[in-house]
Specification:
28% helix, rod-shaped, alpha+beta, five-stranded antiparallel β-sheet
Length: 125
């Protein structure tokens, strides 16, 4: 009987409602700025990239196939991609993961700009 019994000490006052909620709010704010917001930006950029795909663009599909867009079908929901010479496949546009090279935009009169590969115009020569 040399050991005295240990009793729990009286607990302090219970934390208030706001003291319990503040850490939860801080965790949500941190998650929003580090996870949710960047993901929304990536989705917006991908949607914009897919909507701007045009004929002649070199694209990469989600499966890793690289090809050239030959036709945009059904209001941009599908594209026809040439993956080899005379081999064309229909691809859902939202499965495009990257647009590697963009073509030069066509001028308003339907003619391509008169630039060669070096950026010089025909007037400069």
């Amino acid at each position: 009987m040399f050991i005295s019994p240990a009793y729990a000490q009286a607990a302090g006052a219970a934390p208030s409602f706001f003291d319990a909620v503040i850490p939860l709010v801080l965790v949500f704010v941190i998650l929003y700025f580090f996870l949710i917001r960047p993901q929304q930006k990536r989705v917006k950029q991908h949607r914009e990239m897919v909507s701007n795909v045009r004929r002649g663009d070199t694209v990469v599909t989600a499966g890793g196939m690289i090809g050239k867009v030959t036709k945009v079908l059904e209001d941009g929901a599908e594209v026809m991609v040439e993956i080899a010479e005379n081999v064309r496949v229909r691809v859902v546009a939202s499965t495009l993961s990257d647009v590697r090279s963009k073509n030069e935009p066509v001028a308003a009169d339907g003619k391509k700009p008169a630039n060669d590969d070096k950026g010089d115009t025909k007037a400069d020569k």
